Amino acid sequence: MTESTESSRPIAEAVKQYLDNEGWNYDIEEREGLTMYGAGVTLPNGEFRSSFDADDGRERFGVYVYSAIYIPEAKRLAVAEYLTRVNYTRYLGKIEMDLDDGEIRSVVTVTVADSQLSQAMINSLENAAHFNLNDAYPWMMAIAFGELTPQAAFESYQGRDEKEDAASGEVSA
Amino acid sequence: MSTRKQDSLQPTPAPAQQSTLVDTVKAYLDDKGWSYEQSERDEGERVLLTTRIHVDPVVSRTVFDIGVSRNRLGIFAYVPFTVPEDRRMAVMEYLTRANYRLFLAKFEFDLSDGEWRAVCTVIPDDSALTVAMVRRMRHDVHSVIEHYAPGVLAIMYGRQTPQQAWQAMLDREAAEESVEEPDTAEAPDAEATAE
């Protein structure tokens, strides 16, 4: 790991402080000025891998949440259609798919040029990234490994608030 | 190991710093010398500053949408056409590939009417929204349109497949010796012009 001072890496230090305060167990990887804090996370709808990427050189920060399940090639365009519809409804962040290998990830990013990354801001981004993927995940899997169409999946996704009453589960990170 | 309630995943609004958001965006637009129209929605809850910017190859109606009590800013850059129904799946595939590469901005595509737009949003919470942040966000939404719109147009009017349009975009990047994405972190803010 590269030695550096807090003053030269305010974003990385802010992220570390946040994760420590929240009790996350994480590993650290540094590459080309990017500090990546990685952790496994269990949400109500699946298990995911999260990465908090601090880029002090470019004054920006991103939270990436990766699905452990890849989308089979035959279903990728159907899932892409569903995600296109879902993404249109999301304010912060987006769910991305790599059409070449079927990888799914939720991403929320911010630039903090001439500003600072506060603990509240990290919390908002972290929550949004996890919420977006967890929220859309069941229908994504039903398309990928079932017979649900993208349109039917999205209609069900939109109606989830009325039906959802199972949101009281504990989440461990 | 931490344990959180599920409802903690819900994004929550932060304390407002509304006047600062509007003032900061106006300061940016004024500094650029761009004229804009101001309007309000939802009984003053949202302040919209709308301008038209030439972003090769289109003129983009661009809305700086400030959520007053929700303390948030969204920059929405629209292109002046919608994708015809028979080309929407192809454009969707192309934009899915594009979105996977974008850091700050994202494309949103309404499959019901063919509207597509580049969007960048931020909720500053208790951090200050600076002119530099607005500059990077604005630059990013327009640079991604500039970079990827030719491919969308080629799919719509050139009858290219998504794969052909994507490869053509990669070829353009190689020819220009571009990096992996039209990143804007250190980009200057001078190429776009107001209409």
Can you describe this structure?
The complex is a heterodimer of chains A (173) and B (195). By secondary structure, chain A is of the alpha+beta class. Chain A has one domain: Yope Regulator, Chain: A (2-Layer Sandwich), CATH 3.30.1460.70. Chain A is 38% helix and 29% strand. Chain A has a six-stranded antiparallel sheet with strand order 1-2-3-4-6-5. In chain A, strand 2 and strand 3 form a beta hairpin. In chain A, helix 2 (76-87) packs antiparallel against helix 3 (119-145) and helix 3 (119-145) packs across helix 4. Chain B is of the alpha+beta class and 195 residues long. Chain B has a single domain (15-189), classed as Yope Regulator, Chain: A (2-Layer Sandwich), CATH 3.30.1460. In chain B, 35% of the residues lie in helices and 25% in strands. Chain B contains four helices and eight strands; from the N terminus they run E-H-E-E-E-E-H-E-E-H-H-E. Chain B has helices at residues 18-32, 88-99, 131-157, 162-175, and strands spanning 3-5, 37-41, 46-55, 58-67, 72-78, 106-109, 116-122, 193-194. In chain B, strand 2 and strand 3 (46-55) form a beta hairpin. The interface between A and B is large, with 53 and 49 residues. Strand 7 of chain A pairs antiparallel with strand 1 (3-5) of chain B.
Sheet with most strands of chain B: 7 strands, antiparallel
CATH architecture call of chain A: 2-Layer Sandwich
The quaternary structure here is heterodimer
The topology string of helices and strands of chain B comes to: EHEEEEHEEHHE
User: What would you report as the Rg of chain B, rounded to the nearest angstrom?
Assistant: 18 Å
Q: Estimate the global geometry of chain A from the Cα principal axes.
A: elongated
The tally of helices of chain A reads 5
User: What name does CATH use for the topology of chain B?
Assistant: Yope Regulator, Chain: A
CATH class division of chain B: Alpha Beta
Count of runs of 4 or more consecutive helical residues of chain B: 4
Q: Which spans of chain A of ≥5 residues are poorly predicted at pLDDT below 50?
A: 1-6, 165-173
Shape of chain B: globular
Helix content of chain B: 25-40%
Secondary structure category of chain B: alpha+beta
Number of strands of chain B: 8
The overall number of domains of chain A is 1
Which structural class is indicated by helix and strand composition of chain A?
alpha+beta
Largest sheet of chain A: 6 strands, antiparallel
Low-confidence stretches of chain B: 1-8, 10-19, 183-188
Major protein interface? A-B, 53 and 49 residues
